[in-house]
Amino acid sequence: TPDTHADGELTRQLDRTHVFHSWSAQAGLDPFVIAGGLGSEVWDFDGQTFLDFASQLVNVNIGHGHPTVVAAIQEQAALLATVAPANGNLARGRAAQAIVAHAPAGMNKVFFTNGGADANENAIRLARLHTGRDKILSTYRSYHGNTGSAIVATGDWRRVPNEYARGHVHFFGPYLYRSEFWATSPEQETERALRHLERILQSEGPESVAAILLETVVGTAGVLVPPPGYLPGVRALADRYGIMLILDEVMAGFGRTGAWFAFDHFDVRPDLITFAKGVNSGYVPVGGVVLSDEIAATFDHRVFPGGLTYSGHPLAMASIVAALGAMESEGIVANAARIGTEVLAPGLAALADRHPLIGEVRGLGVFWALELVVDRGTREPVPAAVMGRLKGELMARHLLPFLAENRIHVVPPCVVTDDEVARALAIYDEALTVVEASL
Ligand code: PLP
């Protein structure tokens, strides 16, 4: 109707006049406007629907508008909409219990934060206080969030203009397609990446290192699934030198990889787990840190010097309880796993067979990347202009994509259906055909 079209125009006008956007030069921005959503689809003010194959910012694991989660937030708002963190709250206790139910034995406490960045911020603080050591090792090609230490732990370009925190050291993790170690097999990549990490530890002085912080599956920097043996090898190095292992499950956790936690695939036990995004699909901002009993005990008789007004906010807590409950009762994590192995893996492989632009397909669950190259032999990444054209072709066919550098990340909600994946694959196919023809 004309009214809803006018709302779309108003949204655009207010946005351009008053809203300052993340990670952008502000002039010339023209954000896509979303009016509503349900499941794996969103729609604009003109009633046009789009497949959300970005899950917004890879966080809407349970899909849009899940009625149980919406109702739980409404009920909690009517009961008690906010509470100071020092007070006890039933929703908070239940949320923590629901989270640790999926964690390894010996991890029983949760510190809640407002999102993923401050989850990593506090995990780093916990590791430093627990060990009495200072340095934090993390990888190039990682994203850990946009606050003091989290952004400096980050290994992509966003770290560089923000380097105010101290004590951060970076190393290369495994990435066989563009191996830093001249490796030609996953086994070689694992062996050499572990040797590189141990040399970095020895060169930094292992007794000065508080923690190794890793995304279990690197997300924004490329959906880099660690090769067999890598994460257990990192765990062994951490144990050898008395270093804490922090696994960042902010993007990979709660169903994205087809498991509750991504590390469930890799036979590794962290000391601290950071989470956000998928824990409640972002219906209310929240994140947190799951602590090993050993680290938690450090603060039994010693003050933990950290806190947040909204640590364990009741609306977020109610949404976590409802979201995790629905994920269990509706088999949503199992759906993500099945879609990954039965539908996305063969579907994306078939796409790669048809399109020389696709250099590599990698991923698991509903967490995939197509790496686009000018030439399969040289593996030279496609230029930004090609990615821009591709984005236009995908949007024109009503698919919201997640694009990063020379990659399409295929990251639908965990509730995505076979039919929706089939529609998306047809759209990727058409868009790639059009762009290839124009080269
Ligand atoms: N860690 C990872 C792996 C992420 O992908 C993100 C966000 O994309 C963060 C941390 C930061 O989370 P937030 O944006 O909620 O602060």
Automatic annotation (TrEMBL):
Protein name in UniProt: Aspartate aminotransferase family protein
Organism from which the protein derives: Pengzhenrongella frigida
GO cellular component: cytosol
SUPFAM superfamilies: PLP-dependent transferases
GO molecular function: pyridoxal phosphate binding; transaminase activity
Keyword set, alphabetical order: Aminotransferase, Pyridoxal phosphate, Transferase
Superkingdom in the source lineage: Bacteria
InterPro entries: Aminotrans_3 (IPR005814), Aminotrans_3_PPA_site (IPR049704), PyrdxlP-dep_Trfase (IPR015424), PyrdxlP-dep_Trfase_major (IPR015421), PyrdxlP-dep_Trfase_small (IPR015422)
Family: Belongs to the class-III pyridoxal-phosphate-dependent aminotransferase family.
